[in-house]
Amino acid sequence: MTGSEDSRQNGTMENFEEMLEAYTGADKALSVGDKVSGPIIGMSGDNLFVDVGAKIDGIADRTEFLGEEGELTVAEGDTVELYVTAVKADAIHLSKAISGPAGAAMLEEAFNAKLPVEGKVLATRKGGFDVEVSKRRVFCPVSQIDTKFVEDAEEYVGKTFSFAIIKFEQRGRNIVVSRRALLEQEQQAARDEFLKNVNEGDLVDVTITRLTNFGAFAELAAGVEGLIHVSELSWSRIAQADEAVSVGDKLRVKLLGVETDKKGQLRISLSAKQVQENPWNRVESELTAGEVREGKVVRTTPFGAFVEVLPGIDGLVHISEMSYTKRVHKAEDVVSVGDTVSVKIKSIDLSSRRISLSMRDAEGDPWADVEERFPTGAVVEGTVESSSDFGLFINIAPGVTGLMPKSLMAKADKAANLDALKAGDKVEVTVSQLRTAERKVTLAPKGIAASEDNSWKAHRKTQTAKAEPQNSFGSLGSLLQDALNKKK
């Protein structure tokens, strides 16, 4: 044998060995019940041919791939996932699930091979549903019809699904099926596939599926849910998830972590706000202490109200900073959530991320120009607010109330008319004395000259005395002192 002939023979042998290896290596030991995936390589009549990686192609019924209007939903080259329903010398039969008439033996084989069956939900019954599978009536417990809690059982009636047979007894007279088992398998496969392709810190698109009092659940992929805690929904201060998102909303989130709890459940934590710029990065350049701007009330508390002054940035208006004109006991007496108010920025603390606001300073201090508006001797009209043992309290401007002492009322020509005044009555008065530092105004009846009066001091002493307990040590000390004085 020449060298060239030897070379040709060796080449032929190598090619033959490669072909044999390719032929035998592609073979797969497939069994009934196996789930396979492969591309559609051809169509003929009622059959679709699928490459399942074996020596022989898989065959599937074309009718399983028709849409509601009879149109074919797949094309050559599409990859499909199917179950092996039979392995024969000339073909591997594939199906989405066993459907059509089938004997008890085939259903038992599907049970042993964990092969899905197609069933139509006929009606509800106690504890679950009657389902027709291959002309047989079987039972599906209500807990096995879906992975979610069933609120309306009737929504499943009349629909056709794939089921797994989870119980086969008495030669097929007692068959129990589960749709949930298949759904959980699909969801687990989707989870595994999803988690292979993502890492902590990745940005992913999600759809909000449900809201709770601690946050919002979002679907990342089919059967894969994560939680966006209420604190991670928005840079704005929110109390409930529905203040930031609604079911069905689509948004981009950051994957914070993936872990498995003690029960083996997958826990995925997400953040919506970390996808957005931290608004506190803009505070120093966009807000200045002392400026007045409009904001929206986003939350009220027993000690004040939080007002949003920039998107995602809010500050506190303490109840003591809400009004100069009236005493505020609770924020709801002045504002409601959603109100737009003017506020003055009193201080900004970037390190602790706190902003102090004032509504009353934004409106202006009514005492700031009281000397110009109400000089001593000026005659003004006021409204009686209340009466006391010392005289009448009369409001002469929003936030400015003066006292008309009894001693000055008695000097009026018609003192009795003044004594008869009630809250809400209008009366003309003379500004008798101004003490702006103490925010005190003494008023006199019209026509009575301005004069010094100490009624404010007497009123303040009386108010203080009323506030002291009758059995205080101060009163006891006074009694002891009186007793000592009598002995002298």
Strand order of the largest sheet: 1-2-3-5-4
Low-confidence stretches: 16-27, 466-477
How many helix segments?
A: 10
Quantity of strands, as a count = 25
Radius of gyration: 43 Å
Average predicted confidence as pLDDT? 81
Shape: elongated
Assign the structural class, choosing from mainly alpha, mainly beta, alpha/beta, alpha+beta, or little secondary structure.
alpha+beta
Range of strand content:
35-45%
Please summarize what this structure is:
The protein contains 10 helices and 25 strands. It has helices spanning 3-25, 104-113, 180-196, 283-286, 359-363, 370-373, 406-409, 415-419, 455-467, 473-487; strands spanning 35-44, 47-50, 58-61, 79-87, 92-95, 117-125, 128-133, 136-141, 160-169, 174-178, 203-212, 215-221, 224-229, 250-260, 266-271, 292-301, 304-310, 313-318, 340-349, 354-358, 379-388, 391-397, 400-405, 426-435, 440-445.
